[in-house]
Amino acid sequence: MKKLLTLLLAVSFSLAFVACGGSGAKEEAAEATEAVEETAEEAVEEMEEATEEVMEEADSVAAEAEEAVEEMEEGSEE
After folding, report:
1. How many other C-beta atoms are found inside a 10 Å radius of the C-beta of residue 23?
2. What is the SS3 assignment for the chain?
3. What pTM was estimated for this model as a whole?
4. What is the C-alpha separation between 5 and 15, in angstroms, rounded?
5. For residue 28, what are the CA distances in angstroms to 31, 39, 45?
């Protein structure tokens, strides 16, 4: 009788653990998805900032090059 009761308890505990284990995986997957989305958003923001910095630097270099060309043209006219 004790062995039968022990076996029934072991089976019921096993079923309870298996039944409760599935929801944790879904929650972990949702958390992982949120973390990936946050990381992607941060990466996009950083890329936009870097692009702006590069564009500003390119504009600065282009302006300096135009000035240098104008100076060279003025020097060759004289």
Report:
1. 9
2. CHHHHHHHHHHHHHHHHHHHHHHHHHHHHHHHHHHHHHHHHHHHHHHHHHHHHHHHHHHHHHHHHHHHHHHHHHHHHC
3. 0.53
4. 15
5. 5, 16, 26
Q: Which tokens is 41 given?
A: 């958003």
Q: What is the pLDDT along the chain (78 residues), one digit of tens a residue?
A: 778 778 788 888 777 777 665 566 677 888 889 999 999 999 999 999 999 999 999 999 999 999 999 989 888 766
Tokens of 22: 């599935």
Q: Which residues of 65-74 are buried (b: 16+ CB within 10 A; e: fewer)?
A: eeeeeeeeee
Structure tokens at 78: 């004289």
